[in-house]
Automatic annotation (TrEMBL):
The Amidohydrolase-related domain, residue ranges: 4-359
Entry annotated with the keyword Lyase: yes
Record GO terms (molecular function): carboxy-lyase activity; hydrolase activity
Single GO BP term: secondary metabolic process
Record-given protein name: 2-amino-3-carboxymuconate-6-semialdehyde decarboxylase
InterPro entries to which the protein is assigned, alphabetical: ACMSD (IPR032465), Amidohydro-rel (IPR006680), Metal_Hydrolase (IPR032466)
SUPFAM superfamilies, per the entry: Metallo-dependent hydrolases
One CC-aspect GO term: cytosol
Family of the protein in this entry: Belongs to the metallo-dependent hydrolases superfamily.
Keyword Lyase: yes
PANTHER family given in the database record: 2-AMINO-3-CARBOXYLMUCONATE-6-SEMIALDEHYDE DECARBOXYLASE, ISO-OROTATE DECARBOXYLASE (EUROFUNG)
Keywords tagged on the record: Decarboxylase, Lyase
């Protein structure tokens, strides 16, 4: 069995330099008297007075590829498809974006090459640059040995993913056969969390804001007809598609009842179920068999892929040497859901990723992740 982690992040050294040079979100700095570096990336987390709510500690597990490999070994992961973590290059001035994307992508590809067959990557796009520069980078990525697609947030060129100016980007992704890994960052407007939000740490924005952001972004893409126009476009959705598996029926029904869409003949031509089973791949980063079974129900057992979200959600203090709860929970959900149907479990754990992302076979697993739990 090959175990593949398709949702695993890194901030390569060139990106760390960028974060350390900044003093507005996103940035990395220390808060004396502590000498520990902290990473401040999420909208809203800059203003908290509490040190444990203000960003998160950042160490070499975020930027040193040898830590990624050690984490993989600890958790019996054979292959990882790494991606730059949020907020990618969204915040860069247009004049710096294209060059920085090339630097980061070259760095990612070369780092994967140091561990042949164990690391692949999703590239990063210079989304504040011109559309020509973005599509040029997509075509350049296609020629890189370890790159298998691109990671993207939900803001697109600034107006979201249903922006028609993105059509050349979708066209280039479809044409080059590269998967777009859609990942949240911006969440919901912070007011929805209320005046007591900071008392609740990161729970509301991460547990709910992230998946709802993804759900809305994909719904907008479907409504805009992007999948009618680009039927070969493939998106991998973070966190099992947010709440899309649960709400797909409602979305479909509301579309069918909308007089405006009917009058203007603008309803998407393909059903959501069809898009889910042909254009969307869901990760298995959902931490329960309830969510995982819903993901498999809507996308199909051959389109759900194991992931960890490493290095986010590390063990809390005192548990550093233990297997990561965030990982064992996802292994357990796979075992609880499909332990008796090994073909499905093996597909979700790695075979699907190998096939869909053309990973070839990594070194043989030293053990099945399920045996860990
Ligand atoms: O803990 C967090 O803030 C995050 C994040 O920003 N991005 C991510 O992918 N997971 C957790």
């Amino acid at each position: 069995m090959t175990i593949v982690d398709i949702h695993t992040h890194v901030y390569p050294p060139a990106y760390m330099d960028l974060l350390r040079s900044r003093d507005t979100v996103p940035y990395v700095r220390t808060f004396p008297p502590s000498t520990e570096e902290r990473l401040i990336i999420l909208p809203g987390e800059d203003s908290s007075n509490s040190s444990t709510a203000r960003g998160r500690p950042i160490g070499p597990e975020y930027y040193d590829f040898s830590y990624k490999i050690a984490f993989m070994d600890q958790h019996k992961i054979d292959i990882s498809v790494v991606s730059l973590a949020n907020p990618w290059l969204d915040f860069l001035p247009p004049s710096e974006a294209a060059e920085t994307a090339m630097l980061i992508n070259d760095d990612m590809d070369a780092s994967c090459g140091l561990y042949p067959g164990r690391l692949y990557a999703f590239g990063t796009l210079p989304l504040s640059a011109s559309v020509e520069e973005i599509t040029e980078e997509i075509r350049r990525l296609k020629g890189m040995p370890w790159i298998r697609g691109v990671v993207m947030g939900t803001s697109g060129l600034g107006n979201g993913l249903d922006d028609e100016r993105l059509n050349p980007v979708y066209e280039a992704l479809e044409e080059t056969g590269q998967t777009m890994f859609l990942h949240p960052h911006y969440g919901l407007p912070t007011e929805v969390y209320g005046p007591r939000a900071s008392e609740y740490g990161h729970v509301l924005p991460l547990a709910l804001g992230f998946p709802l952001e993804t759900t809305i972004a994909v719904a907008r893409l479907i409504l805009s007809g992007v999948f009618d126009k680009y039927p070969g476009l493939t998106l991998l959705l973070a966190h099992s598609g947010g709440t899309l598996p649960f709400l797909a029926g409602r979305l479909e029904s509301v579309i069918a009842h909308d007089a405006h869409l009917k009058d203007t003949n603008t309803a998407p031509k393909r059903s959501i179920w069809d898009v889910l089973s042909k254009n969307l791949i869901l990760d298995a980063v959902v931490y329960s068999s309830v969510g995982l079974k819903a993901a498999v129900d809507v996308a199909g057992a051959d389109r759900v892929l194991f992931g960890t979200d490493h290095p986010f959600f590390p063990p809390l203090e005192g548990e550093e040497d233990q297997p990561w709860l965030s990982v064992t929970t996802n292994y357990k959900a796979i075992n609880d859901s499909f332990g008796l149907e090994r073909g499905i479990a093996e597909g979700v754990l790695g075979d699907n990723a190998v096939r869909l992302l053309n990973l070839g076979f990594g070194r043989q697993s030293t053990g099945c992740g399920l045996e860990k739990i």
